[in-house]
Amino acid sequence: MRNPFLACAAVVLTAAALAACGSSADGNDPEAAGAQRPAASGPAVPGTSATPAGEPATPATEEPPAPEASAPAATAEGPKTPVDEITPATGTFTKKQKEYLKDRVPKGMDPAAVLQTGQETCDKLRYLVKADRDTAVGAIVTGEIPDAKDAVAGLCTQHQALVDEAAYAYPDGKHSGKKLRPGVYRSASPTTDCSWQIAGAGGKELASGASGTGKSRKITIPDSAVTFTSTGCYAWLPEGAAG
Known about the structure:
single chain, 243 residues, alpha+beta, six-stranded antiparallel sheet, 7 helices, 27% helix
């Protein structure tokens, strides 16, 4: 189920943020290329930093920017431009940017457009983590922010903890077998129709529940669990991983 809060993340792509692609081509890091830092529309999440490490604070009065169309993403098919031939129309790419672009730029495509896609991913994560960290992790878990793993590794490493946590979380759906990891989990941005069920051998129900409030709930997946099914809860994050 798509989280409606992510619609707000689209507004993070300001003209200035998109211009970071051109600014970074002059040798600046994409995370410090002069793009405006979007501010969350609400207070910071308790227990988390309102501003990611290494980033300047954003004035609370900054207005959400208008959404922009996403740049075309590189596909896995077709020949790619060799890394030593990847150059912007003006200026140069940083080493980190060229590493991200390696094997991503189809022949004949503007590498700046591919880089913009990765930078938009970083922008969305930056916006979400300021507003609600759990939603940011959930967006990675559910795939609503695609290419997050590679974009973070190459362009915005300060968000690596989000990707690491997402690797141990569960999106809505049915999970079974070796994919189940015992432990305590909390729901991230659940809807008022959030429900779950944990079953053991032979389909025997071990635990189940529902939340009509939309508030986060905690569950425990025991060692004896065989299947875990979730609907309307968006994602379940491992407890103790936030911070």
